[in-house]
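Q: What would this complex look like in 3D?
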Amino acid sequence: MPPIPGSGLAKGLAVTLRTMTRKTVTAQYPDVQPELPPRSRGVIALFEENCTVCMLCARECPDWCIYIDSHKETVPAAIPGGRERSRNVLDRFAIDFSLCMYCGICIEVCPFDALFWSPEFEYAETDILELTHERDKLREWMWTVPEPPALDPGAEEPKEIAAARKTAEKLEAQRAQEAQQAQQAQQNQREAEGEE
Amino acid sequence: MNDVLDVALRLVIVFAVFMVLPLVVGQTEHKVMAHMQGRLGPMYAGGFHGWAQLVADGVKFAQKEDIVPAGADRRIFQLAPAVALLPYLLVLVAIPIGPGEGAVGQVVDAGIFFVLAVMGVGVLGSLMAGWASANKFSLLGGLRTAAQLLAYELPMLLAAASVAMAAGTVSLPGILDAFEWWWLPWQIVGALVFFVAGLAELQRPPFDMPVADSEIIFGAYTEYTGLRFALFLLAEYAGIVVLCGLTTVLFLGGWHGPFGADGLGWVWTLLKTAVLAFVVIWLRVSYPRLREDQLQKLAWTTLIPLALAQIALTGIVKVAIS
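A: Here is my prediction, written as structure tokens for the whole assembly.
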């Protein structure tokens, strides 16, 4: 059956009218903050307490946009007669976000969980030089890092929790054994007293 | 003295309507168009949903430098926006919005003639702008305007003639006095022809070939800046108001409504005009621009035969009922 003449025109009008009754898709950004998906790549935050200055991030960075300065400190021996230990102290940690391409390799490569993705994205500057952000700013962004999404139900236990649980169980078992031994010792003593 | 006051008051009211309604239509277009495209449209100017956007635009236009190209025909170039805008003001004087002497700027006996003749002058503004700009794109735009005016003035006149025949008068209030509800289905073809031809004469999308920006920049208005450009834009929206008002008066029964006591006729007129203005915006959003040859073909092979058929129908019915 051939289409009714003018049905195409009516269809066009219907489409626009239907769109008018629907909710608009406009994001009113400065007034309303966008709802970012989890794992958004906004900015790289530094948890400097975890950083050991291993330099892996700076070395792996394809853009060479991470600047790290450090010095060594000696820590006095923990026990008398022990050996002094040396420790790396972070002096400067800066990321030049005018060079960064947000590949996230530094975050992947960090063995001590010192770098994180933060969804924070409002750090535009009027001068490109000001886009090099130092450790205090990077540490501040750490507060905006969301907690990791929950595991799937039935997923394998995270390694660190499994390790902690194992240690706790071991300690528990040890304590129980000691208590049992103490009880046994007490009983033996009482029996010995009774025989006298 | 009283007569002078009366005339002055009427003129002031008509002028106020002329300044306000086109802006209302323009703002409605901003918003309706945006929502039809899934957007919000202006949201900031004036605070509440950008109601003052067009006021802000006007301020911006007034601040801009008024440039006349070196090679342009200076006087004609500067006069063109006024020629485009003023006819719509004159037409507005003659459109009745309610019954009686009090609801029309000035009763003109040959109303239809006056209105259609003066509306035709408005298009001359674009033609003058096109010629005077000394710019090839402007000239092309002006010529397209002229071609469009020639093609669409005829069906518009024929459709209006059909109503005049039905009413037996060419006075606009006279036509409305004679109006009966069954004129609506009787004159529906004429109404469609009149409305479509009017849209084409206003160079509104989908008939905006004379200002097709992808081909000839902005047609006859290419060289204009500042306030003169704003006047051309205002003329377009004033044209929408006038066209919708005229269609309401000629074909939709003006102040007649299915209910509503006396004294509320002007509400019906404004309501019908507003609905038609919405349709104008709706058509703009929905349809792509017609090519120049399609434009001419629509006028000469579709609208004119339809208008002639409407006149024949009007004549037959008129003879049959008398």
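A: To summarize the key features: The longest strand of chain A covers residues 85-96. Chain A has two domains: 32-144, 155-196.
Q: Very helpful, thank you.
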